[in-house]
Amino acid sequence: MVTNLGEESIMSKIADFGERFERQYLCKEYLNTKNVNIDRLEENWWEALKFFLTRTFYQGRRDDVSVRVETKALEVLGKYFDDPLEREKNFQFLKNASWSQLRVDLQAVIGKGKVGRRRDIDMIIDILKFISRLPDKNIARYSVEMIKNNKLEELWYGLQKSKSKEGIRSVGKKIASLYLRDLVTILGLEQEVSNAHQVFLQPIDTWVRQIIEKIGLEETRNEMKLRRMIVERCGRVSKSAIRAIRFNEGAWYIGSHSLEILLGMLM
């Protein structure tokens, strides 16, 4: 275990890489003030759906495969929802047909012998069912309202099929946290998140866990305890949720970009 002084220092430096993560992965699309997408998330359910989908495919496989699945899925969905004049009519058509036509379209490009797997299709259908139960189909607006009403924990559980009857298949604790972490970041909702709820903004994947192990901070294999430990230790550096979020982002960035970072130091 590192000393307290060393622990705070190294966690702060890892969190600094979180800013690099945000510039590289969030700024281009959402954190640039000249980009209208950030406003459209709460105004346009299709924009909100795309934002959610771009987080859900990254689970248990190489990123390049996830990118291909995401691309194919959005191509199919875009045929129905890109045109604002046809969007609502097409959504109702697909819903009235119990999503059968959409399933056929997705099966043509996703599944066995193609890119991805069949449960990717099940997840997409479940997401559409989920938003169909919302008043305006906007998952981002719904999420923001839940967060502002101090219901982040309820939202986190509600997104997961294993935790909620109306949850989404293939959306587990990591994906739910990834979506919520990025949503809170781009919309600047950190101050709306209580200390107790910061754990729900800590997606734990192999990179985050490996970084924690390497710096000697991990004390448990229990994921929720690990999340709490990260938040508590980051709280020693800063009471703001921003620091805990950036530590998480930074740990992932360092783990997944270690070679790039090393070469950058050598050149």
Give a verbal description of the structure:
By secondary structure, the chain is mainly alpha-helical. 67% of the residues lie in helices and 0% in strands. The protein is built from 14 helices and no strands. Helix 2 crosses helix 3 and helix 6 packs antiparallel against helix 7. 36% of the residues are buried. About 2% of the residues have low confidence.
Descriptive keywords:
single chain, 267 residues, mainly alpha, 0% strand, globular
Short description:
With 267 residues, the chain is mostly helical. It has 14 helices and no strands. The chain is globular.
Radius of gyration: 19 Å
Order of helices and strands: HHHHHHHHHHHHHH
Mean pLDDT: 90
Shape category:
globular
